[in-house]
Amino acid sequence: MPNTYPRLHNAMWPGVVGKGSGDGEPFISLDTLLTLTANARYEGQKFDGVDLWLADPHISIDSTPDQVKKACDHIAGFGLKIGSMVAPIWGGAGGGSAMGSADDRKRFIDQVRKACVIGKQMRDLGIRPTGGVRIDSSTSVEQWDKDPAGGTRMIADTFREAGRIAADHGEFLAAEGEICWGGMHSWRENVQLLEMVAMPGVVGYQADMAHSMLFTLGYNAEQDRLLPEGYDWADRSLLDKAYKQVADALRPWTLDFHVAQNDGSVFGSGDHEKTGRHCQVKDPNGKLDIVKHAGYWLRDDAGNLTRTMRHICWDGCMFPNAVMESQDTWNDILGAMVRVRDAHGWSE
246 vs 87, 156, 229, 296, CA distance in Å? Predict the structure, then answer.
């Protein structure tokens, strides 16, 4: 019998991130993504659930309990559970910088609080057996560079306050390090930040395979680069060594995990600042061995399963709409997820 854990989830926010503004492509509705997710099949297996975007046009962070209940019933109708949720902690979404003014930080905290309230209600309703609340520093590397030490201390203070709120609601916070977020733009800075927060199990790392791989190339943090300039991607041994160093440093803090592919370049669309480019599973330019490199996060130094993540999620941010609206895309993605679970999963 195939492994049953970790559960396999699909992310809903790629239908929103980088969409719907300026000359960008239109948003993809939650219903469209739920339908594509529910209909995906690979060797008779299917997705178990979805990770949510708690902002319009999907599910508003200001939803009433009745609206949350209605949304949960709707998602359950697709045969799907709910896992982790993205709290809209950015200024343009009602939040503010974690190292900004007192008002910025208050709005950041308020958005986390709202997400935790919704998350607890979903758990009480029985539709959300796993997952945490996803955050980041909501500040640019340029702003952070003006006072690195002071900026990281302030981000840590904000995360710590948010962590106390999460703990009060039975939640955990997963901070997603990306090269575009100040104070979280390198593997070393992420470790230092989480050590400063000092709330293991409550405030941890959300590892996206694609974004984390960019750390090896030193974008925005040349001093923390692990692969040489002009690296020849044909030499996979160097990538394996560098990527394992990143995973070894951050795995003890990792509470949430995104399976993804990356071509080693950076990209941005809509209002989203440039960050790692997600690729399709079968993209010939993809640099990751998805199954092998997922094991760097799902197994410890001795090769034993950590079993920390009860579900894993696919993140395909900034795929073109034509790609995202094709059922074949999600069948291929599900296939990659199943292969990761076959290699690094378990049954209970």
Answer: 25, 21, 18, 9
Average pLDDT for residues 281-288, to the nearest whole number?
Answer: 94
pTM over 0.90: yes
Indicate whether 215 belongs to any domain.
yes
Q: State the residue range of the domain holding 194.
A: 7-344
Tell me if 329 is assigned to some domain. Answer: yes
Residue 1 included in any domain? no
Q: Is 306 exposed, middle or buried (0-12, 13-18, 19+ CB in 10 A)?
A: middle
Q: For residue 1, what are the contacts with CB-CB under 8 A and spacing of at least 6?
A: 347
Measured CA distances, 301 to 90, 205, 245, 290 (Å) = 35, 18, 11, 18
SS3 state of residue 173: strand
Element (H, E) at 290: helix 290-298
Our count of domains for the chain comes to 1
Query: Does any domain span residue 2?
Result: no
For the record, the structure tokens of 123 come out as: 């758990």
Residue 326's CATH number: 3.20.20.150
User: Is pLDDT above 90 for 14?
Assistant: yes
Percentage of the residues of the chain whose pLDDT score is greater than 70: 97
